[in-house]
Amino acid sequence: MAKPTLTPVFADMHIHIGGTKSGKPVKITASRKMTLSAILEEASERKGMEMIGIIDSHSPEVQEELLELIDRGLAKPHPDGGVTYKNTMLILGCEIEVKEPDRGEAHFLCYLPTVADMQRFTDWLRQRLKNVHLSSQRMRGSLRELQAFIAENGGVIVPAHIFTPHKGLYGSCTDHLAEVADPNLIYGVELGLSSNSDMADTISELHDKTFLTNSDAHSLAKIGREYQQMAVKEPCFAEFVKVLRHQDDRRVIANYGLHPRLGKYHQTACQGCGSTQPATAEGRCPDCGKKAVVHGVDERIKELADSAFGTHPDHRPPYVEQFPLEFIPGLGPKTKAKLYEAFGTEMNILHRVGEQELARVVGEKVAHTIALARTGSLSVKAGGAGVYGRIGVE
User: How far is CA 311 from the centre of its chain?
Assistant: First the structure.
């Protein structure tokens, strides 16, 4: 039997809902403009994302809005899971916080095939969450309980932003996955903005996991600040799971991420004064004396590393460091509007349009800066302690 033809698609699998259609909050820290419909429209028409994960799909009002889109014929459930809207496949997800005894909190992305499956999950969560309408709520129960429910209902779990000191699996919860979870039910992990594949693969227990690079978007502009290109037969839930398990040639072709130094937790730094000096034995900043030193991702990974830097499993795709349009210095709203009008989506601008074509619309200087951004060839000052790094032009 001939192998099916696989299609490359761009995917951002971690996008938050800021508010419902009626104006009620979902992700408190996200823009209220981040409604389901607005995200779908932005992802399809402006960003050019062919698959997205909306990880607040457990919220009842979000489900109501999605069902309304389906009833109006604007969205269509896929027989193999997921919901199609224009040129974008929506995968339903939910971010859950788990706190194991005597450990810090960690966030996990739970993906399920259908609206009915997600509604069943919502009912299950009602007995375990303080407020089922809000995002990223702490669950009463263990990670293994959560894994069991998701697996029994045909879903998958991906640990979110695994190295960040703020509720990352390795950043605040554990040194080893097996201490808190069944590793055999974890097929992929999300790296987060402050790390890349070279850094993550220094931890050998991650070698069999698929690496995801997602935006964790809290505003429409942040959709696609990190993403990946996947090889699938067609965008849908079943194919996404095959990508995570790297089955039947389905795989991540390339991860497109920010330079790790741009991440707001990349280096160890003091939230009080910004000092990057190591904390004293008492845990205080040596410069300002406050107990406000935040352990950086780079330092944390080095503590856990048990494999040589640059060692990768055969299935690991390239990690391409690049900067999305929103991060590029000197690229204001009017210039971006010109680019969108000429070339359609951000994926077209970053991947499919030549530098000369760009120059005819925005001039040679801006076009060259975009070309540098595609390959991460802009200078970066590292971020830390909750403050993003900064970009400059060499």
Answer: 24
Domain spanning 7-261: which CATH class is it, in words?
alpha beta
Q: Could you give the C-alpha distances from 259 to 201, 217, 254, 255, 270, in angstroms and in order?
A: 16, 17, 15, 12, 21
pLDDT in tens, 24-71: 999 999 999 999 999 999 999 999 999 999 999 999 999 999 999 999
- Helix, strand and coil content of the chain, in percent to the nearest 5, comes to 30, 20, 45
The full set of domain ranges for the chain reads 7-261, 326-375
Q: What is the C-alpha separation between 162 and 153, in angstroms, rounded?
A: 24
CATH code: domain 326-375 is 1.10.150
325: amino acid identity, one letter? L
Tell me the per-residue pLDDT of 85-111, one tens digit each, with 9 for 90 and over. 999 999 999 999 999 999 999 999 999
- What separation in angstroms does the CA of 64 have from each of 8, 21, 40, 163, 346? 31, 9, 15, 34, 30
Supply the pLDDT for residue 262. Answer: 81
Model confidence at 382: pLDDT above 60: yes
Spatial CA neighbour of 66 closest among 14, 116, 127: 116
pLDDT of residue 373: 87
CA distance 232 to 250: 5
- Alpha carbon separation from 203 to 99, 303, 304 (Å, rounded): 23, 10, 6
* 248 Rama class: left (phi>0) / alpha (psi -120 to 50) / beta: left
> DSSP strand E in 154-195: where?
156-159, 188-190
